[in-house]
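Bench log. Compound arrived from synthesis this morning; before running ITC I wanted a structural hypothesis for how flavin-adenine dinucleotide sits in the protein. Inputs:
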Amino acid sequence: MLGPVILAASRSDRMRRLISAAPVTKQVVDRFIPGESVDDIVPIIRDLTARGLELTMDVVGEDITTPAQAEAARDAYLRLIDRLEDMELGERVEMSVKLSMFGQALDGGHDMALANVRPVVEAAAAIGTTVTLDAEDHTTLDSMFAIHEELRRDFPQTGCVIQAYLFRTEADARRLAAAGSRVRLVKGAYKEPAEVAYQQKHEIDKAYVRILRILMEGEGYPMVGSHDPRLISIAQELAHRAGRKPDEYEFQMLYGIRGDEHLRLAAQGHRMRVYTAYGTDWYGYFMRRLAEKPANLRFFVRSMLSK
Ligand code: FAD
């Protein structure tokens, strides 16, 4: 029952101020968000890629309130891409972006988000890599899919995320499972109402398998975003049955969660991409990680009490 409470807190400004100012927060946050600046994150990119992992980079931030913040988000990604160019890692390091951080929720936000994300997609393409559009709450998705379609006209490799907990997602998966598409399937991390989303874990897991089958049997490139051991072995089985070779799909997990499994899958010859977040506006991202596993919250509270 704690998960929905934490997710509600993730949207509260008061909680944001309280938690961001807590004296021990930073050391707990570091487990999931291992840096604040490009300089912090470059050594981590070097280390993880040297271990055979691939990465998708997220500059944390969402729920911005001014167009200037949206432009600052764009510029933060451009600075990162500039540094990646020298590292010559190509598609081994791609970008993940949240359109809310590019202005999607502001007045005229759809066009603003498209205008701000396009230069990031262009810069990524120029260094031989790509961008995946993260999925946020369900009210943002029609706009996200329209922006995805628009970007794919010039950059067909642009990826997007779909969430198994939403009733709409099976239909989205059928539409997206076409040649050349790159689709990350996740369970879904936001607090969604029963009118649009499954609420029970077993229902979400069953939907995940149905949707994964659609992606694996389709023509696109499935990206399996989950830490769930059962779903990972089902994904391997579905890929095998669909006749996919190891480089025709990939696994993705979050930095700080099941790190040994990242290395184990990579050592077995799978493509394993680690979603690595960095930046200063970490509150929303961090709270969703707490909501996914209430034991994280207990650890967080214990570390505050022990100070
Ligand atoms: P779960 O059943 O939640 O977890 C399985 C096991 O993984 C748990 O038993 C536990 O051992 C471990 N685990 C999972 N989460 C945690 C945690 N926070 N801390 C510690 N251990 C944990 N959601 C979106 O809505 N939109 C997105 O764009 C999006 N992008 C994502 C990208 C990637 C690469 C990944 C891996 C997830 C993304 N998510 C996104 C989050 C996703 O929706 C889930 O909330 C999250 O992955 C937890 O679900 P799970 O599949 O790992 O299964």
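What the model suggests: The radius of gyration is 18 Å. The domain at 33-281 is CATH 3.20.20.220 (TIM Barrel).
ITC booked for Thursday regardless.
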